[in-house]
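Morning - S-adenosyl-L-homocysteine inputs below, output right after.
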Amino acid sequence: MKVYIIGAGPGDPDLITLKAAKALQKAEIIIYTGSLVNREVIKKFGRPEAEVYDSAGMTLEEVLAVIKKAAVENKIVARVHTGDPCLYGAVQEQMDALDRLGINYEVIPGVSSFLAAAAGLKREYTLPGVSQTVILTRIEGRTRVPGKEQLADLARHQATMCLFLSVQVIDQVVERLKEGYAEDTPVAVVQKASWPEEKIITGTLRNIVGKVKDAGIDKTALILVGNFLGGDYKRSRLYHPRFSHGFRRDSGGDAE
Ligand code: SAH
């Protein structure tokens, strides 16, 4: 018996990892986050005879009950999350419960939606001279955000920011961000990144709220903020001719 906790990727079924696809192909029981995971992923890689559960209408206890039964029957389970399970996936409580139950599990990472959004925008989050930091955060909702992580405080860093679970209150988000970023800071909202119906709205902190409301976007979208979206930046030293020979020990990028 084994449980695979899988990141299904942002939507496009081709953006699942090979390892996750192989695990899905083995699974006799599939529990997926129906509100967000593209059903096509399950159809494409799941076995037709697999028992499929949509966790959207289930409690943690109900999910665990399905897994416990599978353990008794010695079946393979795929617990499928959207993007990567480590971000806003409520996955820790599941893993801790499985540890307590002595159930064997493995986590297989996925392509998070904030990565698919950058691909859709064709932008780099970490432009030299602009920002070398990416803040992944959300506005508080039913889940509280710790006091030291208030948006206005995070905004003061003027780093690249990716906001999950927040587009439904973009007006409040923008008000708080304006306490740290200049009003002309570029903002992009990407809905359903990598899905056929992907939608991208761009603007600035001054005008993005109206544009997003006009487009009717109130869910499954990320708000991306920062000067990485436009304007000047410094050329990277990574591919600079002066640094292109030898072993680039001094480089600032991923050749390290
Ligand atoms: N674990 C997921 C995030 C789950 S929280 C991940 O790594 O992407 C759910 C939130 O993620 C949504 O409210 C939305 O803000 C964002 N999201 C998930 N899929 C998305 C997609 N394809 N495009 C844009 N945003 C997405």
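Note: The first strand starts at residue 2 and ends at 7.

O.
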